[in-house]
Amino acid sequence: MKRRYILLLSALVLFTGAVIMTGCPAHVQPQTQKYKVTLNSGKHGSVTVNPALPEDGMVEAHTWLSFTAQPDEGYEVDTWTGANRNYPDNTTATLTVMADTTVSVTFKRIGYSSEKQKYKVTLVQPEHGTVTVKPALSEDGMIPQHTRLTFTVTPEPGWKVNKWTGAGIWQDKIGYDVENNEVHLSVTEDVIVSVTMIEEGKADASLLKIDSTGRLTGVTNKYRLKGSLALPNTVTAIGSEAFADCTDLTSVIIPDSVTSIGYNAFYLCTGLTGVTIGNNVTEIDESAFSGCHNLTSITVPDSVTKIGNFAFSGCKSLTSVTIGKGVTKIDMSAFSRCNKIETLNINCKTVPYLGMTSLKELTLDDNVNEIGEQAFYSCTDLTNVTIPNSVTKIGNKAFQGCTGLTDVIIPDSVTEIGKAAFKDCSNITGLTIGKGLTTIHDEDYYSNEFPFDGCNKIEKLNINCKTVPRLNIKSLKEVIIGDNAAIINGYSFSNYTSLTNITIGNNVTTISDNAFSGCTGLTDVIIPDSVTEIGASAFASCT
């Protein structure tokens, strides 16, 4: 009976279990739990993980991770957090993932306790100054972490701070005073603190950017470039916009090693008052010194062959300019808007139009061969000009409108005078023309382009050229024709009614047709023995 009962009970249990299993879904598995593992490593070392963490850091529960630290040379593991360090090997630690965990490791210098971490602070004393530190550095220079140090420099007379390194490094940013005599440092690592000094008023040449070819391409910080600057001899060229907008630059010495000054090189250097250009510069490019408002004088050396367009445009304080003999091309706007230039010394072979209408004093040196077209057009304040014996040609309108001129001597070397060369120089009273003149341009009586048209105060003329041309100077009262003259051209002095006295040189052979016709003021004429021919009406109507 007992055995039967047990069998029935077992059958019942099996039946009940079958019913329950029949009601459950097939193949359902519980979801795997994951946790986020984050890894942080401090300075002076790195950490690897095995197995590697996925990108999102999510790791399955119960995963066993092994961490291995690699300290930098001279450092060792200090602390692990979030993982179990393996003793005695501090470089490894393990973790069985059971929750979100951050694993961190820090490093320390070998031989120092993390509780009293120290770093070495080295002070380099500058030339031309002395630095003190508070609190004072220990003999070994080892300073506890996070100690705040104050460095103070006392410059020698005539010197100032140029730049700190190692301490107060934030001052290198634009807008901060890099010339501070006092800076601070919070000790967080080994550091060398130094300061460089610079003479008062001198700019820091270490700010210059110079490429491998010697080309100066710019400056690292234009706001720190202050005072006078002497470029090093390693510079071979000054590139485009190299010093543009360096407004605190006051003077520049360009050495002989430099051969060219590029486009906009010193554009808007408004503080610049003086520039020395080296003797090997051959080209001053377009707008090189444009807008240098305080530049007062400039000397262009003999080596320069070209001065570009607008090279000195807008240099409104420029009063004196010297241009050497090597210049073969000056673009016409090179000195535009330079309205205070009063003195010009120029020695190039051909003097071009410069637009310097404010000129008062002009020196043409012995290398000048030609005074170009409109070279000194309308320089109304110019009162005196000496034309050297090297000049052979005076171009069209070269001195037109120079109303301040009172006396002009054209030397024997001049062979050609262009049309309207001295037109409207209304205050010239004395004129001397040397013996070399052979060509007077535009002798058309009705052209109004004679070289001296509008010069209505010239009363005396000394002329000694081989052939005396027609000049159309009707105000003349006295004419002296020198012994070099051989021919007096037709109509040369026709209708000069104010002419009262004429001296004809002893070598004149021909007085051409109408040469003195209508000279009603003449009362006495001596024709020398040398004259062999007198043209028709040569003295007609000399009543």
UniProtKB/TrEMBL annotation:
<feature type="domain" description="Bacterial repeat">
    <location>
        <begin position="119"/>
        <end position="168"/>
    </location>
</feature>
<dbReference type="Pfam" id="PF18998">
    <property type="entry name" value="Flg_new_2"/>
</dbReference>
<feature type="signal peptide">
    <location>
        <begin position="1"/>
        <end position="26"/>
    </location>
</feature>
<dbReference type="InterPro" id="IPR026906">
    <property type="entry name" value="LRR_5"/>
</dbReference>
<dbReference type="Pfam" id="PF13306">
    <property type="entry name" value="LRR_5"/>
</dbReference>
<dbReference type="InterPro" id="IPR032675">
    <property type="entry name" value="LRR_dom_sf"/>
</dbReference>
<feature type="domain" description="Bacterial repeat">
    <location>
        <begin position="35"/>
        <end position="110"/>
    </location>
</feature>
<dbReference type="InterPro" id="IPR053139">
    <property type="entry name" value="Surface_bspA-like"/>
</dbReference>
<dbReference type="InterPro" id="IPR044060">
    <property type="entry name" value="Bacterial_rp_domain"/>
</dbReference>
<keyword id="KW-0732">Signal</keyword>
<protein>
    <recommendedName>
        <fullName>Bacterial repeat domain-containing protein</fullName>
    </recommendedName>
</protein>
